Amino acid sequence: MADPEVVVDTQTPQEDTDMQNVDITADETAAGGEGDEDPTGLEDIEPTITERVGFIDYLRSPIIELIIGSGDAQTTLSAHQGLLTQAPYFQSEIERFASGAARRIELPNDDIDACAAVLEYIYKGDYFPTVSGNTMEYDPSVPSPDDTGVALLRHARVYTLAKRFGLPQLAGVAHKKIHLTQSTAKGEIAYARFVYRETGAEDEAIRKPVAAFWATRSHVLRHEAEQEFKKLCLEYPQFGFDVLSLVLDMQEKRSQRAEASSQSGGRKRQRL
């Protein structure tokens, strides 16, 4: 079957002609307006990118040697300067380094385990054993029962170092762990002796809880460690005074409550 004939109209429609004229006019207008825009002053402004100090930058910082202890017990630990300077004490020591001299800080009188805990906190934000809520991680190295106050003394040493190095947040962490640590009467005696030997009278944050502990429990606990308790009171009279003051304060408050209760509950005397 043959295909039907197709008739092609060779005349250009008027609509197409008009559209072409419009396009040409638009192109001319765009070409003519090129470069006529007023400058806004924003052409050469580069976006501001805030530089972030990453952990890798700390790891690239110089290594500082910490010489801890003395004699046969002396140990050398290493840490990155970029992290150590978080502690004002270390920042001050590093600033005193002479050009070309060994980058060492000596801590001859400090405990190696406490110093290691401080470094662990500086690097990780916490130290072992960690705390989750009000529960502390199990530490298999602590004896049970802890008659020597091993756990309490560990955290107390970290607390005193944190105060000295200028790390208040670490001091708070150690203080919380102290209050979550279980011990015995003899362990508490060892802890109290350390606190009153290593801290000043103005440090009520750690001294007052120690005195309050013995003020509220001494009538029971002193029988478990009576000689140790007596020796501690003679060795550190301030401890004995703090405990006695709290005991007398509690007795005075009880007397005041009892007196107020008897006065409010009694009958008024009738006048004649």
UniProtKB/TrEMBL annotation:
Bias (Acidic residues) ranges: 34-43
- The lineage's top-level taxon is Eukaryota
* Chain positions covered by the region annotation Disordered: 1-43
Spans of biased composition, class Polar residues? 9-23
Family annotation (InterPro entries) = SKP1/BTB/POZ_sf (IPR011333)
The entry's protein name is BTB domain-containing protein
Q: Which residues cross the membrane?
A: none
